[in-house]
Design goal:
The chain has 764 residues and is an alpha+beta fold. The chain has 4 domains: 11-141, Beta-Lactamase (2-Layer Sandwich); 148-323, GAF domain (Beta-Lactamase, 2-Layer Sandwich), CATH 3.30.450; 328-488, Alpha-Beta Plaits; 519-537 and 561-758, TIM Barrel (Alpha-Beta Barrel), CATH 3.20.20.450. The chain contains 31 helices and 28 strands. The strands form 5 sheets. An 8-stranded mixed barrel has the order 19-20-22-23-24-25-26-27. A 6-stranded antiparallel beta sheet has the order 8-7-6-11-10-9, sandwiched between helices. Helix 18 (463-479) links the parallel strand 17 (446-453) and strand 18 (485-487). Helix 8 packs antiparallel against helix 9 (175-188). The structure holds ligand C2E and magnesium ion (MG) (2 copies). One magnesium ion binds at residues 657-658, 678, 714.
């Protein structure tokens, strides 16, 4: 405490020096003293100590004349601020008379007019000639400095509050919680007794209380909102701050009911701005009038900006979340969100013990409709289907679009299978009435598969598996003629299990050397010569024997195994045909045909991989024919086009397989670089017997000729068919009439003994 006085030049020294000069210089210095911005005094010790001198500045600072002050010795102690009085008197009483220096002390005093003034009191104690200890000191008015310090502290506290609010906003995404936090932080600031956040309602007519003032709001019914004519409304409209200094004399704005209840005297409102439109208003209040300064405006605005940013981010997050979980065309949940809901439902069901059903919907012949009425109309149709599906469901059920023309419906809490079928039938009603698309009516039907799970407490089941089951049941519905609904059953279950098993085993088929190629000869009809062979894959399964592609190719396609299998097929077939070529030198080189799946064609690196195989084996590109099923093109024409172009550039021949089973038109065919068409077996079947079929084959062959494509007939089984094909001018043929697909060893033998050549003549 005394250190200040003991230093080189403490305030005590200054006062002493000053007083020495006064006493030494008489009247000269009196004028000097009286110009100082401080009160100079000397007074006897003690609470009631007599004041011997006080300079006239006391009038400016405390509002008393020196005479008044000196006349009443108790005045000083009386005018001490009640909050400081005890402390100050204690220090004064505790000062030892033998000590000259007293540490400076600051305290508040009440002026004559009742205002509060901050005083810094610096004095030294010296006995007078008679030995009475007397204070000689100076009282400085430090009110401004004190206020500045207070403002600084308040500012720092406010900055900290904004920083904390910002951190909260980053850590917790929930805007509701952030608003509560913001309101609480506001009220931690000195002089802010209450705070609240108003949000503009949907039609923009009122402001609704979103956070703060809960207790007051609970008292008066209907006080949860404020009108646009309130100060908050004005802040919202102007985007500026609005200060109400005293609600008692306020004439501009209507007082919101809740503020009246809370006893608010002054308020400060700033708008919380959103990117597109203001969100609402942050409003702070005091029970004292004129409580808010321009500095408070900055603080409240900064806090409002933090809230605004968080709201903006939340809205963006929500929008993103919605995009991730919804189908943009129909606005329905997508497959991801369907699986989420299904998992939740399964977990709930495992506790409640009620079954959960999944309905898998697939529109019938949607591609045909889409192609014939155009994509925009197709989209419109999907949207109408989506809204009809939604309208035919119970409130708790979920309908999602899986993609394309596939929809899923989740029925929570089923009673039994019959209920699921009843729901499927009710949903089928959605298709009973025609759809009005592009001014025309279209009837559309759907095939529906149903799968039901009965989760138990130990096993809540697997959402993906359930959807897969429903999908399998939907396929059954398609197989059985479409526009119907099938329940996933034990047989399908077994098939599904077998499929899974097959998929696992197929994964090892190449390394275990279980794949084989059979070859079917292709005959040139004009000469009867064998000009090529089609490689057809087989799987020599260790338990199930020799399997046809029908039993595993679709599994290989779905699992992606078709890619390594396909590469193996291509390489083996190329090597094989070169080997046979070597066995019949001087003869016309044989072509080799290999089949491709959609998945292979979809890969952009297919041409590269084929080029590598040609390189490795040394087969001339023109000898390789790649067969592509027509339906692939219909489904993924965009990516397929580029791949086919690349293959064509390699010099490889492209054959359109199973022609007639897809929907390709002449114009469409022109877009792809094909060399040959292979007419599907189903058309050859009726050849020469059914007039319609014959006419189609005739047209196809004519078309092939017009497009300079070779025509190949597959599945030729009898002489009638052969005769017809010859008559119609078909170029090539293959089928049981000439030869089945034969194992490689059998063909090697035929090549060796010259038997291959004879196969081209069925009459041999
Ligand atoms: P595809 O390319 O249309 O092959 C013709 C199918 O018809 C072959 O069946 C063949 O054995 C059979 N076939 C040939 N002549 C006759 C006949 O006169 N009458 C009858 N009823 N059938 C005949 P396979 O070998 O079972 O192959 C079925 C399909 O599997 C093939 O149809 C092809 O799409 C696919 N496939 C075969 N091998 C492969 C392959 O290595 N990769 C890919 N991706 N698919 C393959
Ligand atoms: Mg083929
Ligand atoms: Mg075919």
């Amino acid at each position: 405490m005394e250190s200040a006085a003991r230093g080189k030049s403490g305030p005590g020294d200054r006062v002493t020096e000053f007083l020495d000069q006064i006493s030494g210089a008489g009247g000269e210095y009196r004028r000097l003293i009286e110009r100082l911005p401080a009160i100079v005094y000397s007074c006897e010790v003690g609470e009631q100590g007599r004041w011997r001198y006080v300079s006239p500045q006391i009038e400016d600072i405390l509002g008393y004349s020196p005479e008044e002050w000196i006349a009443d010795p108790s005045l000083w102690a009386r005018q001490l601020h009640s909050g400081d009085r005890d402390r100050v008197l204690e220090v004064e009483a505790g000062h030892s008379p033998s000590q000259r220096y007293a540490p400076p002390i600051d305290y508040r005093m009440i002026t004559h007019d009742g205002d509060v003034v901050w005083i810094l009191d610096e004095a030294v104690l010296e006995p007078d000639e008679r030995g009475t200890p007397v204070w000689h000191g100076v009282l400085y008015d430090i009110t401004e400095r004190k206020h500045a310090e207070q403002e600084l502290r308040r500012g720092a506290a406010q900055q900290a509050a904004v920083a904390r609010l910002g951190r909260h906003a980053l850590q917790h995404g929930d805007p509701g919680a952030l608003m509560v936090e913001a309101v609480e932080l506001m009220t931690e600031i000195d002089g802010v007794e209450a705070a609240c956040i108003w949000e503009v309602d949907e039609d923009g007519r009122r402001l609704l209380l979103r956070a703060g003032l809960e207790r007051s709001a609970a008292i008066v019914e209907g006080s949860m909102s404020a009108g646009r004519d309130s100060h908050a409304g004005a802040a919202l409209d102007s985007g500026l701050h609005v200060i109400v200094d005293d609600w008692r004399s306020e004439r501009r704005f209507a007082l919101p009911g809740v503020l009246g209840t809370a006893g608010v005297r002054s308020s400060l409102a700033v708008s919380i701005d959103g990117k597109d439109r203001p969100f609402g208003v942050l409003d702070i209040h005091s029970t004292e009038p004129s409580r808010f300064t321009p500095q408070d405006v900055h603080f409240v605005q900064a806090s409002a900006n933090v809230v605004a940013d968080a709201l903006e981010r939340h809205t963006a997050d929500q929008a993103l979340r919605h995009r991730v979980l919804h189908d943009s065309l129909t606005g329905l949940p997508n497959r991801i969100s369907f699986v989420d809901s299904l998992n939740d439902a399964l977990t709930r069901a495992s506790v409640a013990g009620t079954p959960v059903g999944v309905l898998f919907f697939d529109l019938d012949h949607f591609k045909l409709i889409n192609d014939s009425i155009g994509h925009h109309a197709g989209d419109e149709l999907l949207r109408s289907v989506a809204s009809r599906l939604r309208n035919h469901l119970r409130p708790g059920d979920v309908v999602a679009r899986f993609g394309g023309d596939e929809f899923g419906i989740l029925v929570d809490r089923l009673a039994d299978e019959d209920e699921a079928i009843a729901i499927a039938n009710r949903v089928a009603d959605a298709f009973a009435k025609p759809y009005l698309i592009g001014g025309a009516e279209h009837f559309i039907s759907a095939s529906v598969g149903i799968a039901i799970a009965r989760p138990t407490s130990g096993d809540s089941g697997d959402a993906d598996l359930l959807i897969r089951d429903a999908d399998a049941a939907m396929y059954r519905a398609k197989e059985r003629g479409r526009a119907r609904c099938e329940l996933f059953d034990v047989e399908m279950q077994e098939r599904a299990v077998r499929r899974l098993q097959t998929e696992r085993e197929l994964g090892h088929a190449i390394e275990r050397d279980e794949l084989r190629l059979h070859y079917q000869p292709v005959v040139e009809l004009a000469s009867g010569e064998i000009v090529g062979l089609e490689a057809l894959v087989r799987w020599r399964h260790s338990e199930r024997g020799m399997l046809d592609p029908g039993e595993f190719v679709s599994i290989a396609e779905e699992s992606g195994l078709i890619e390594p299998i396909g590469r193996w097929v291509q390489e083996s077939a190329c090597r094989q045909v070169l080997e046979w070529q070597g066995l019949r030198p001087g003869r016309r080189p044989l072509d080799i045909s290999v089949n491709l799946s959609a998945r292979q064609v979809a890969r952009r690196d297919l041409a590269t991989s084929v080029a590598e195989i040609l390189d490795r084996t040394g087969l001339e590109p023109g000898r390789l024919r790649l067969e592509i099923t027509e339906s692939i093109l219909v489904e993924e024409s965009a990516s397929a086009t580029a791949t086919l172009e690349d293959l064509s550039k390699l010099g490889v021949r492209l054959v359109l397989d199973d022609f007639g089973t897809g929907y390709s038109s002449l114009a469409y065919l022109n877009r792809f670089p094909f060399d040959a068409l292979k007419i599907d077996r189903s058309f050859i079947d009726g050849l020469g017997v059914e007039q319609g079929r014959t006419a189609i084959v005739e047209a196809v062959i004519g078309m092939a000729r017009a497009l300079s494509l070779d025509a190949i007939a597959e599945g030729v089984e009898n002489e009638t068919q052969l005769a017809e094909l010859r008559r119609l001018g078909c170029d090539y043929a293959q089928g049981h009439l000439f030869a089945r697909a034969l194992p490689a060893e059998r063909l090697t033998q035929l090549v060796r003994d010259g038997g291959l050549e004879l196969l081209g003549d069925p009459a041999r």
